[in-house]
TrEMBL record, chains A, B:
Binds 1 Ca(2+) cation per subunit. Seen in 1 crystal structure, it is not clear if it is physiologically important. The keyword Cell membrane does not apply. Ca(2+) binds at G62, D64, D456. It is found in: Cytoplasm. GO terms for molecular function: 5'-3' RNA exonuclease activity; RNA binding; RNA endonuclease activity; zinc ion binding. GO terms for cellular component: cytoplasm. NCBIfam families: MG423. Belongs to the metallo-beta-lactamase superfamily. RNA-metabolizing metallo-beta-lactamase-like family. Bacterial RNase J subfamily. Zn(2+) binds at H87, H89, D91, H92, H154, D176, H403. It comes from Prauserella marina. Keywords: Calcium, Cytoplasm, Endonuclease, Exonuclease, Hydrolase, Metal-binding, Nuclease, RNA-binding, rRNA processing, Zinc. One of its GO terms (biological process) is rRNA processing. This is Ribonuclease J.
């Protein structure tokens, strides 16, 4: 029977994994874009591929990060052989320190650049993890699992796909992938290697779904360089290029253009400075002697002699670029005729912030060059045409789309079917859905609970749905506090009650009329001999809540406090 | 001198308008998309074109609507000759009732459909405005202004452009406009009329900027019909089409397809039902006898015999479509194989909500057809190619881009210049910037204050920036309330202090450690003889604030209440 279009999957507790079977469960990254983490289980042993974070949306106010839900493996951490990382983006490595807190000796496998970024992150967490560097072409035995690494092309250097061999079969996990046939560093996605795996027989393909809805092919990264070069060649004033702080190849193209047009370069933004240092140390970024200067020096050079490479391309409100757009940057004041290039994608959900920055810059007179009006960015994820190449090279028996929202997963599944994968062998398994590969056939057999785990400030997990739902109420309507001091023996108010609001109204008299209502209600509760502070609190909450709804038609949180003395 | 790229414009109070000059000020709609309202002044008399609302964004939590800022004309309402409406969208008519509250007898001019929508709105406000119906081709003397109306094509029937003649010159305001050359109702944008105005000499053109960044031409509306027809022809289960409740022509195409494929139709959503009734009554929508059924009846018909036309295409959380996507709709449960068509644009800022709905529907197994994967929507605003036709037909002496964010205004200005309008005659004037047309030349001469006016529930204007900034803080971090009762004579705490949070943590013990700190601080203030409740409150706020920042690295609002007894 087809497993496509069957809704969100089973809800039962998964049955025991049959002997010789392989179990796959995503604890994040399927049904959402971010916090990628896939757990493989064979004969009681576990292998983790990636462990990233998700950035919060409007429904998760005030939260810094969202982690994969580790509960399903929390009691089994001793059975984990290793974490294998496909590449160094936050949504693939960002949650590693949180997992290491629970098992510090867990070995982490990854490529050189990936591990360098992870090491910098772990240092901030004061951790010294066991890092094992691997390269494309290598095979490693990781306990019950034999793992082989393949070069893949993505928007960060040194990305890997991971093939996992057990007696249950051969699984290939692509990680994030595209098939740029003219990559800047010459490091192609290893389609030949994948074809060889296909000859051997791939039992399950876990494949990046991000751009499955997009027809055709991603433009080669190489075509961005000349566009950037043209822009930089023609500017007659200051130029600022914003891009992702991990997109080393994009930065290289900007540096090359700067050199060609006689400009020196300053990096702006902590993560840009840090990552480009790492990339340069590892030989992934070539910075000619004398090209780089620091920001303080740069702002004193003639405008035409310097180029700024900045973070902030997603409209992050505290970034240097946002501050420039608001005219609040300490060192750089945008003026008419300046040029700002956003050499970056627009991550869904950031539209308002990014357009806010663009509008702010345009308002100050800058020319803003971005994806919408020039070819200054291409995606790092395979479009539909490339995915077809992958399917046809790998010829998998079973397919499990990963890395994407439901609309992406479904589109990817349809591509698989069009290349000849049997519909009943394509599993749409969101986070927590258990996929068992038994006798060469993948099926969803149950579900483990996967919730959101929030990091807010220093703590993990103490902010949950109840706190977030309070924040949503407070953020929409503020609150009204009612304070009452009563005689504990008689329930009589011993001082006048106060009614005050925050986030409710700018009008200082807005709540004046409520005080009399509270006083009347307190007379009533006293007359009825009510001394229980909880009951008194409920009574005043009720009258004030009703009054506010009728008078203002709003729903602030009503917070009564009744103190007995 | 060029007025392009000169930043946001002057900040001075505008000088008196010279005799014989015409003044133009937008109180909304320029530098933003929404709340369009332009005020024209000649010899002490005022004319208002449009009076719409803006829908709030993340930075304006809890607010229902944002109005244009009427302050600049509040004391001069007696000098207003009339409001002229270009069309019936909310961002052009939604604020009329709020202006009428201040001057109920102000006459409102507009086309038949526009006024019908306004009348329905005013009825909800219990207003009986003076409505004067006008048609394309008509000329009217409105006091000091002679006004002529022109048919324009947009995503709502019966839209008008407005030419305003005074001795100061001829101004043409396009309203929202596109140049569909094969419009469904045969009602073309009157380019011939605009050409005639051009012959006469247009001194100032106020022109829609929404799609100025988009190259080329908007696909004719007529090409949507066959796509919708194809989708509806091939579905074998339930089909739901969501679109804007004012897009009568789009709904007509859906109805036509329903008739052709033997389906009856139910409207879902209050505004859809209301607007389509109005459109049918005015002969703008043709509903064959017996086609419409109500929702209760529709859900009992065989699935293939009914088509639902629904609101909710922007992912509004309370809409019927959102409830279906969450599996919470009372009457319609989406199941695998159902089809949902979003025949609508994706308004910037709504991406998360819309993709949330799409993912929810896909997760339940529905096939979702939308702008991203099929040609089921076209914009109602002229792309760059069409704007060039407008400029070349009208040949204006001066141009003032309207209806758009800064990036749109700038793009539109550049188009004007490319058609030969002198750069110094293109004015980029955001809300509040005063443009004076004197001796045939438009210049920005000053600025009046234009802020956001918020409607929240029943009140207008009592929610301002201070309340919103409190809401943002509360929404991000919740609050911690500290309650202390002190002896008013000694400043001594007469009951144990309480420290409690909302929106701060799910952990009931999260704040336990703060109580002791408050007690210590109260001992200190008492020892120092401090009895002033305000000072005591500040002291406990300080210690708790510092403790929370250090312990949690969060910034909740700290709300101390010190009650003297």
């Amino acid at each position: 029977m087809s497993q496509l279009g069957n809704g969100p999957g089973p809800n039962n507790t998964p049955p025991p994994l049959p002997d010789g079977g392989l179990r796959v469960v995503a604890l994040g990254g399927i049904g959402e874009v971010g916090r990628n983490m896939t757990v493989f289980e064979y004969e009681g042993r576990l292998l983790i591929v990636d462990c990233g974070v998700l950035f919060p949306e409007d429904a998760q106010p005030g939260v810094d990060l969202i982690l994969p839900d580790f509960r399903a493996i929390e009691s089994r951490l001793d059975e984990v052989e290793a974490i294998v990382l496909t590449h160094g983006h936050e949504d693939h490595i960002g949650a590693v320190p949180f997992l290491l807190r629970m098992r510090p000796d867990l070995p982490v496998y990854g490529s050189r650049f990936t591990l360098a970024l992870l090491a910098a992150k772990c240092k901030e967490h004061r951790q010294r993890p066991t890092l094992v560097e691997v390269k494309e072409g290598e095979r490693r035995g990781l306990g019950a699992f034999e793992v082989e690494f393949f070069a893949v092309n993505h928007s960060i250097p040194d990305a890997l796909a991971v093939a996992i061999r057990t007696p249950a079969g051969l699984v290939l996990h692509t990680g994030d992938i595209k098939l740029d046939q003219l990559p800047l560093d010459g490091r192609l996605t290893d389609l030949a290697g994948f074809s060889r795996l296909g000859d051997e027989g791939v039992d399950l393909l876990c494949v990046d779904s991000t751009n499955a809805e997009v027809p055709g092919f991603v433009t080669p990264e190489r075509e961005i360089g000349p566009v950037l070069d043209d822009v930089i060649a023609t500017v007659s004033q200051r130029v600022i290029v914003a891009c992702f702080a991990s997109h080393v190849h994009r930065v290289q193209q900007v540096l090359d253009a700067a050199v060609k047009h006689g400009k020196r370069v300053a990096f702006v933004g902590r993560s840009m400075v840090r990552n480009m240092n790492i990339a340069a140390e590892l030989g992934l970024l070539t910075i000619p002697e004398g090209l780089l200067i620091d920001l303080d020096e740069a702002v004193n050079l003639p405008e035409t002699k310097v180029l700024f490479v900045s973070t902030g391309s997603q409209g992050e409100p505290l970034s240097a670029l946002s501050r420039m757009a608001r005219g609040e940057h300490r060192q750089i004041s945008i003026k008419a005729g300046d040029t700002v290039v956003l050499a970056s994608s627009l991550i869904p959900g950031n539209e308002n912030a990014v357009f806010g920055v663009i509008n702010g810059l345009v308002r100050l007179g800058a020319n803003v060059v971005h994806q919408g009006n020039a070819k200054v960015h291409v995606s790092g994820h395979a479009s539909a045409g490339e995915l077809l190449f992958l399917y046809n090279a790998i010829r998998p028996s079973n397919v499990m789309p990963v890395h994407g929202e439901w609309r992406h997963l479904r589109a990817n599944a349809e591509l698989a079917v069009r290349t000849g994968v049997a519909e009943e062998n394509v599993v749409l398994a969101e986070d927590g859905v258990v996929v068992d590969l038994v006798d060469g056939k993948a099926t969803t057999t149950g579900r483990v609970e996967v919730g959101y785990v929030y990091v807010d400030g220093l703590s993990v997990g103490d902010v949950g749905e109840s706190t977030l739902s309070d924040r949503l109420v407070l953020g929409e309507g503020g609150f009204i506090a009612i304070n009452v001091v009563v005689d504990s023996a008689t329930g009589r108010a011993v001082s006048p009650p106060t009614v005050s609001g925050r986030g409710f109204s700018d009008d200082p008299k807005a709540l004046d009329a409520a005080v009399a209502l509270v006083e009347m209600e307190l007379s009533r509760t006293e007359a009825e001999g009510i001394t229980d502070t909880h009951r008194i609190a409920q009574a005043v909450r009720r009258v004030v809540g009703r009054w506010v709804a009728e008078t203002y038609r709003r729903r602030p949180m009503i917070v009564p406090t009744v103190i007995p003395v």
